[in-house]
Amino acid sequence: MKKNSVSKYDDFGNLVSSKYSASIQGRFSVAPMLNWTDRHCRFFLRLFSRQALLYTEMLSANTLLLSKNDHLVYNNEEHPISLQVGSREPKILARCAKLAEERGYDEINLNVGCPSNRMKKGFFGAYLMNEKEQVANCVSAMREAVNLPITVKTRIGIDENDSYSFLSEFVDTVSTKGGCKTFVIHARKAYLNGFSPKKNREIPPLNYERVYKLKQDFPSIRFVLNGGIVNLYDALQHLRKCDGVMIGREVYRNPSILMKVDSIFFGKLDPVTNRKEIFEKILPYIDNELSQGTSLNHITRHMLGLFQGLPGAGHWRRYLSEHAHRPGAGINILVQALSEQLLI
């Protein structure tokens, strides 16, 4: 890995001198979710936790390099933030890594777990589990190009390659030849044929023990467990046998579970104590985005679960869904949605 003269790295390839280094190690993170974890979603989630590592949506390398749109834009409040990228080409990934470093991202994550048709056609994503040498080359190229931690997100298996030996050989190759020191493991196998991404998230059985065994066999490597975790209690239990936990759709459905993450997982003061504080904190952000031409519903679609489990939560969701997309919709829509059910 290329290192400059002032940076210090720990045994896992993380920048010790970075104020985000503890979070970058992935003790607690929110999963990258395609079409969901955009910049508005990440800003919203950051209000609940200052320490949790947030991820971008998976972005293909070609999209980053060739699109006329700026897919790397984010708000500085989103740190620590990891860019998840998908490709099978080391040189192209190295170029993406340089762009991410220039833009101030805290980590780059290579997607080796998504089973969508687009990934299959491009021979990357989960398909790359079958090409451990190529994954090692990709990781190595990025590590040579930048000073950022390079991590890999993958599955425990793919199609008929569903043995522990297959998984351990993948980890061994990518870590020794590629230099990857952190793996995020979704504890389900992936099916490339006949299963939609949704089915691949739900039908293949979870196998946490396989991830635990990886940690036993590769103690110097960090393993972050993903898949099926729905509360902080279960997350803490997993931390007894692995280095980090990642929660995805449950956080999106009920983001309030993040409110205790900083104190429970990082020993830090939680930034908020109730959901009304979140509502008040995000209003200036929304006001600023509206002034720049952002449509209200592009932000509020991520806020539907803000009052999950509280009286009036259903009305909150319905009111935003029915009104936020209308031309000229502004802050008054949120105030009205909140006040009509006496949530305040």
TrEMBL record:
InterPro entries, per the entry: Aldolase_TIM, DUS-like_FMN-bd, DUS_fam, DusA, tRNA_hU_synthase_CS
EC supergroup of this enzyme: oxidoreductase
Amino-acid positions noted as binding FMN in the UniProt annotation, renumbered to this chain: P32, M33, L34, Q84, K153, H186, N226, G227, G228, G248, R249
Site annotation Interacts with tRNA: residues: N111, K198, R201, R317
Catalytic activity, as annotated: 5,6-dihydrouridine(20) in tRNA + NADP(+) = uridine(20) in tRNA + NADPH + H(+); 5,6-dihydrouridine(20a) in tRNA + NAD(+) = uridine(20a) in tRNA + NADH + H(+); 5,6-dihydrouridine(20) in tRNA + NAD(+) = uridine(20) in tRNA + NADH + H(+); 5,6-dihydrouridine(20a) in tRNA + NADP(+) = uridine(20a) in tRNA + NADPH + H(+)
Entry annotated with the keyword Oxidoreductase: yes
Function summary: Catalyzes the synthesis of 5,6-dihydrouridine (D), a modified base found in the D-loop of most tRNAs, via the reduction of the C5-C6 double bond in target uridines. Specifically modifies U20 and U20a in tRNAs.
Protein name (database record): tRNA-dihydrouridine(20/20a) synthase
Organism per entry: secondary endosymbiont of Heteropsylla cubana
Gene: dusA
